[in-house]
Structures are given as structure tokens and as C-alpha cells.
Specification:
Layout lengths: L1 E5 L3 H12 L3 E5 L3 H8 L10 H11 L2 E4 L2 H5 L4 E4 L15 H10 L8 E4 L7 H12 L4 E4 L9 H6 L4 E4 L3 H10 L1 H5 L4 E4 L1 H32 L3 H9 L20 H14 L8 H24 L7 E5 L14 H11 L3 E5 L4 H7 L4 E3 L2 H5 L4 E4 L4 H4 L3 H5 L6 E4 L6 H6 L3 E3 L16
Parallel strand pairs: 1-2, 1-4, 2-3, 4-5, 5-6, 7-8, 9-10, 9-12, 10-11, 12-13, 13-14
The structure holds nicotinamide-adenine-dinucleotide.
């Protein structure tokens, strides 16, 4: 099939490359001329495991091309995927829909005959119907569908080629058939295909992200109780996660969620519910958001405790800048938010990340960055482990102890082997594990 993919960010670029990989002929379109120029030359604009190989293969096969010209591309295909951003509005919790609106307005005049505009962007319920009405005023035969994206950054290629489910909000059997044809290899591999209406498809995505966010904040709330009572949240999470109805995934206590999706998606759901007069129904999401934001402040407080007082004038090493491991994305990164706050308090902050240093430096040029773990920790008074890159688990704590000024580490992701670090002479602290510290049973807020 011939497809266009409009917006070549994390979702659109991966979708375009994967669609070419499964045999479609794809044109990726973006307004960003630098990005399209780079892609045309084979330059991958962000880190995502496996994406480089797929892009090169698609481009070499001739099935994957890039352009900034929506007009030229629009006429070359009948199926157009919309993958532009839907960030939080600056003036409220609601989603900013001007990019999806602009795509429909720009695309519609170029459409001839029946074609399918498939939204993949995450949008508040009701958006697809509104866009459909807008579309058919200009292109009466065109049809809208919504096919929300569930990929996880860091696993985006794998999640797109082998999704856990596909959800298609459609208005007609024809649209349903087109989407089944697009995803035919996945359907042959028995990926569940949930065919539904537009509002259900839109809501599935925000409901899924709200549930995941709730799970994370739930365990972080339990960590606060553990801190106050001497209980251990890691043991607690393991024990409750063994209940198959609960499960271990997304039950990792720590610094909480960030990135370009979960925070803005739960806020967008709250904002839409309020518009519908149903704010109370999802009122718990406000607390989910607050618990999550509080984790960032708690790291700073705990870092002060580890340092024995004010952080001003101290050297603080930060391990991790990406919002999660496996990605170079620093949008709403909890790690960078903490690094910035500690810098504001007068500490000298040196940040390490294996992939996100360039993006982090562009966001916070006043911090110091390095690609070398020991360098980030040279003369450090406190080390903060803020992004759970697997490589950090391989650090030799005895070796690192020889470069720091004081061997004190806050494991805000609960992935380090605390016993190993302690036996190498480190003071280790972590949320919800009060017995780890030098003052067993001591709570903190
Ligand atoms: P992004 O910001 O990385 O990419 C968006 C791209 O769209 C940018 O390159 C931008 O230049 C381009 N763009 C904007 N307006 C355009 C226009 N009129 N024509 C052509 N290109 C245009 O965003 P993203 O992270 O890929 O997210 C896209 C959508 O997918 C969002 O709604 C997001 O919530 C959702 N989503 C994201 C993820 C994720 O992990 N990043 C996962 C699932 C869903």
C-alpha cells in the first residue's frame, strides 16, 4: 500500500520506518526542514534501538522517502497517518490540538476521492469527530479514523512491529478493511485487532496511560508510608506484585514518571472530563499527578540529608538525564528537573547519560555534562542515580568510591544492588527503604 506519515517525531518516524519494513511504500512528511534534510541523508534525529537499521533499509529499498511538501505527498496515497504532537497547553491542563487541526486543514484541499485520514496522535475524546466534520467540509469523500499509538520509547520499533494490540476507531467497514490491510503482517501473527468507534479508540489511549500513571504513583505513595513506618517498599512491591491481579510491571517505586506522554495525558484526561462536567470522576488523577511531582522534591530533600545539610557549594553527580532508559528524550525528564533544582540551590552539578547528553545540554546549557561515569563523580559529595540505565547496575562501587569525595548515593530508581554498594563503603538511601540509611527507621519528607 502507499501511505503517508505526517509528523516524523518519535511516533511518526518509527511508524514510517516500520510500515516500510513490512512492505508498504511510505512518504514521511514534516514541517521541520532540518529534520527532513537530515533524514534524506540517512541521519537519524534521535536514539531509538533498531531504528537506524530500519530507516536505512527502508531508504535503500526505495520504499521510504521524506519530504516537507504535504501537497505533493498527499496525492500519492489514499491513507494518511497523522503523528504530530499534542502537548499540554501553556494556559491550562488541556491538550494543545493546534498541530492536528493544522494537518487536517492543510491536507484536506489536496485530497481527491475517498481517502482515509488516520490519527495516531493522543487526543481528548471527541477530537476525531470534530476533525472529521472539519475534513469533510473541504474533502467530502474523505474519512477519519483513529488508531492510537501505544509504543514505549526505548522499545518503539519492537512495539510497532509486534504490538500487544491494535486499536482502530472507524466509521465504516471500508476504513476497517484498510487498517486491517495496513497491519496485515501483525494480524497474521495473531496481534489482537480491536475495531471500535472513534470515542472509544481515543479514550483507550488516555485510559491506558492514566492507569499506568496511577500504578506508579500508588507505589510511590506506599513508599512514603514505608519511610514513615520503617517498612521496606521494595519487598512490599514484590509481595503485592506476585498477585496476578496486580502484577509487577509499573510497580517500581522511585522518582516517578515523566516524558512527553504520561504527565500531559493524565492532565488532558482531567481537563476533558471537567469540560464534560465529570471532573469528579477522575479527581484521583490530580493526586496521581501531585504524588508524582512530589517525588522530585523528595529527591532534593533526601540529597540534602545525604549531604548532611545544604547542597550549596557541594559537588553533586547525577547519573541519568533521559526521562527513562533506552531513550535520549529529555522532555519533562524527572532526572533533569532534579538536576536543575539542585543547581538552583547552589550545587555544582555534573550529569552523566549514555545517550541524552546532547538533548540535555540543549535544554540546560548551564549544567555540566559528560559521557564518562567516573568523571561525573569526581570529587562528588553526593551521587544521585536518577535514570535506570542498565549500565549503572554494572558500575563497580569500590572503583567509584575512589573518585568521589564522600561515598554517598541516592538510588532514586531502586535498581542498584544496595548491599553491594554498602559493602563497598557507600551510604545508600532510597525512597521507602528507611533501613538502608545510616539512621535506621528515620523517616523523611
Ligand atoms: P514529536 O514532538 O516527537 O513529533 C512531532 C513531529 O510533528 C515533529 O517533528 C513536528 O515538526 C511535526 N509536525 C508538527 N506539525 C506538523 C505539520 N503540520 N505537518 C508536518 N509535521 C508536523 O511527537 P511524538 O513524541 O512523536 O508524539 C506524537 C503524538 O503521539 C503525540 O500526540 C503523543 O502524545 C503521541 N504518542 C507519543 C508517544 C511517545 O512515546 N513519544 C507514544 C504514544 C503516543
Amino acid at each position: 500500500m502507499r501511505l503517508t506519515v505526517i509528523g516524523t517525531g518519535y511516533v511518526g518516524l518509527v511508524h514510517a520506518a516500520c510500515m516500510a519494513e513490512i512492505g508498504h511504500t511510505v512518504i514521511g512528511i514534516d514541517l521541520d526542514t532540518d529534520r527532513i534534510e537530515g533524514l534524506t541523508r540517512g541521519r537519524v534525529p534521535f536514539y531509538e534501538p533498531g531504528l537506524r537499521e530500519l530507516l536505512h533499509r527502508g531508504q535503500e529499498s526505495g520504499r521510504l522517502r521524506f519530504t516537507t511538501s504535504l501537497a505533493a505527498a498527499a496525492r500519492s496515497a489514499q491513507t494518511h497517518f497523522v503523528c504530530v504532537g499534542t502537548p499540554q497547553r501553556l494556559d491550562s491542563h488541556a491538550a494543545d490540538l493546534r498541530f492536528v487541526d493544522a494537518v487536517v486543514d492543510d491536507l484536506a484541499p489536496h485530497l481527491r476521492g475517498w481517502c482515509l485520514i488516520v490519527g495516531k496522535s493522543t487526543v481528548p475524546v471527541g477530537t476525531a469527530a470534530r476533525l472529521g466534520a472539519r475534513l469533510t467540509r473541504i474533502a467530502p469523500e474523505a474519512e477519519i479514523a483513529w488508531n492510537p499509538e501505544f509504543l514505549r520509547e526505548g522499545f518503539a520499533v519492537q512495539d510497532t512491529l509486534r504490538p500487544e494490540r491494535l486499536v482502530a476507531g472507524v466509521l465504516s467497514p471500508r476504513a476497517d478493511a484498510v487498517l486491517r490491510e495496513v497491519y496485515a503482517p501483525m494480524l497474521r501473527a495473531h496481534v489482537p485487532f480491536v475495531s471500535t468507534d472513534l470515542p472509544t479508540a481515543e479514550l483507550v489511549k488516555l485510559a491506558a496511560n492514566s492507569f499506568l500513571a496511577t500504578k506508579i504513583s500508588f507505589i510511590n505513595a506506599m513508599a512514603e508510608l514505608c519511610d514513615a513506618t520503617g517498612a521496606d517498599v521494595v519487598t512490599l512491591a514484590d509481595a503485592i506484585g506476585r498477585d496476578a491481579r496486580i502484577g509487577h510491571r509499573y510497580l517500581q517505586p522511585g522518582l516517578g514518571f515523566g516524558g512527553s506522554c504520561l504527565p500531559k495525558d493524565i492532565r488532558a484526561l482531567m481537563a476533558r472530563a471537567e469540560e464534560l462536567g465529570l471532573g469528579e470522576s477522575v479527581g484521583f488523577l490530580r493526586q496521581v499527578d501531585e504524588i508524582n511531582t512530589r517525588q522530585r522534591r523528595r529527591v532534593v530533600v533526601l540529597a540534602e540529608q545525604l549531604a548532611g545539610g545544604s547542597l550549596s557549594g557541594l559537588n553533586v553527580a547525577v547519573l541519568g538525564a533521559a526521562f527513562k532508559p533506552g531513550s535520549d528524550d529529555v522532555r519533562d525528564s524527572p532526572a533533569l528537573a532534579v538536576a536543575e533544582e539542585i543547581h538552583r540551590q547552589g550545587a555544582r552539578v555534573r550529569v552523566h547519560d549514555p545517550e541524552a547528553v546532547d538533548n540535555a545540554r540543549a535544554a540546560l546549557p548551564w549544567l555540566q555534562f559528560t559521557l564518562d561515569v567516573p568523571k561525573s563523580c569526581e570529587d562528588a559529595d553526593v551521587v544521585l542515580h536518577l535514570t535506570a540505565w542498565p549500565a549503572y547496575r554494572e558500575i563497580d562501587p569500590a572503583e567509584l568510591a575512589s573518585v568521589v569525595r564522600r561515598p554517598a548515593i541516592l538510588d532514586a530508581r531502586h535498581t542498584l544492588d544496595a548491599a553491594r554498594w554498602r559493602s563497598a563503603g557507600w551510604t545508600v538511601r532510597a525512597f521507602g527503604r528507611p533501613k538502608l540509611g545510616r539512621d535506621p527507621g528515620e523517616g523523611f519528607r
